[in-house]
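The authors assume throughout that readers already know how a fold can be written as discrete tokens. For illustration, here is how one protein appears when written out as sequence plus structure tokens.
>
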Amino acid sequence: MTLAERLRRCFALLGAGRRAVLVLHVDEAELEAKRAAVATLVNVQRDPEGGPFACPCCASLTLPTRGQYELCPVCFREDEGQDDHDADLVRPGPNGSLSLTQARANYAALGACDRASLHRVRSPTPQERPTR
């Protein structure tokens, strides 16, 4: 029986207008395993002094936040939160049919995330140069 089914059954037994206290048991080992799994997805890099975040496409330190649809002025990729763990996926959204992996390859070859953005990009400043 799922948790939702158990809850429905408990509420049905209680009846209308009655109150209950719900106590959930959390298995510490299971919780730690889930934390470790999530930690593998976290690979956002930030300047050591707490400055801007690194763009996931060009690695320049240009983003004030991550995953908030900021445009990187160096490669012109819009940061929708995609990172190494799902770089090969083409996500629906602001970057069209372009995966992060393809955008990185385009940046390495062209200097922009795609050919259409070439006239919008600029070189990184010395402070924005990648640290990785």
Q: What stands out?
A: DSSP finds three helices and four strands in the chain. The two ends are 48 Å apart (CA to CA). Strands lie at 53-54, 61-63, 70-71, 78-79. Helices lie at 3-14, 28-39, 100-110.
